[in-house]
Amino acid sequence: MEQRTHTGTAAGGTADRVRRGVRAGLAVAVAAVTLATVAGCAFGRPKVNVPPPDWATASPSSSSYDPLHPTPTDTPGYDSYSPSPTEETFDPDGRSDVRGSGCDFSSSLRQFTYTLSITNPSTTSSYSYDMRIDWMKDRPADGSTYGEHQRSVVVAPGATETYTAKYTLNQSSWQAFSYTCQITRAQKTKM
Question: Are 135 and 179 in contact (CB under 8 A)?
Fold first, then answer.
């Protein structure tokens, strides 16, 4: 007769039992998760009717309020104004309508020049631009001017007028100097 002998310690026997118990527990857990997943897919989720919270269904005083198609009187929360497409806004400071280029000084002519392009953004109104150009001391920039030029220019709706501002120095000799051209004023008046 064949005899089987098992040798080990008591702790080893307990470890085997624990291992078997853990394996059995894991097998039961995997089976339970599999069954729950299959049951959920096979039977679908039950439908639960939960009413939305009060804040989700609240509407302004108008009982015919449609949040997807609000009318100006139904729009909750704020009042706003924006000009209609035919209504133009007017800013009397026309410096944003003016572009300068070619800030220069001719030593042979003793003359500063600066070319200006004035574009009237209005499609309906002519404007008069009361211009002032200053040739400013640059290094050091202390706010003093070498000269100025003033002129009024009328610009038709949607048009651009270009002209060259000039200033001639009175002195016949000078040392090297630095300067900048500055559009100091472009006061816009409706004609």
Answer: yes
Pairwise CA distance, residues 189 & 126, whole Å: 9
Per-residue pLDDT of the chain (191 residues; tens, 9 = 90+): 333 333 333 344 566 666 677 777 767 777 766 666 666 555 555 565 666 665 555 555 555 656 666 555 554 555 555 655 556 778 899 999 999 999 999 988 999 999 999 999 999 999 999 999 999 988 888 888 999 999 999 999 999 999 999 999 888 777 888 999 999 999 999 99
Output phi, psi for 164, to 5 deg. Answer: -110, 120
- Tokens 């049951």: give the residue: 39
Residue 5, CB-side half-sphere exposure with 13 Å CA sphere: 1
Residue 116: beta bridge partners?
100, 163
